[in-house]
Task: structure prediction
Amino acid sequence: MTVTVLLFASYADSLGMKSLALDLSPGATVGDVLGHVRALPGANRLPASPLLAVNERYAKRERVLESGDEVAIIPPVAGG
Result:
């Protein structure tokens, strides 16, 4: 199955892309997607605890994905 991964802020900057398509096995989870992204060159500079969303709704790492899902990886934000 194929899912689209959206990258924001420092994730997009570190990896040099705003999105990518991943081919995953059926039953793959949001955590599996994060693992694939962390294996990419430049990912060692990424913040450790991103917010995760599937189809524009916050999701936990254990959520099982379906083909065509859109996974967003959002780094922590700070404000003042």
About this structure: The chain has one domain: 2-74. The CA atoms of residues 44 and 55 lie 26 Å apart.
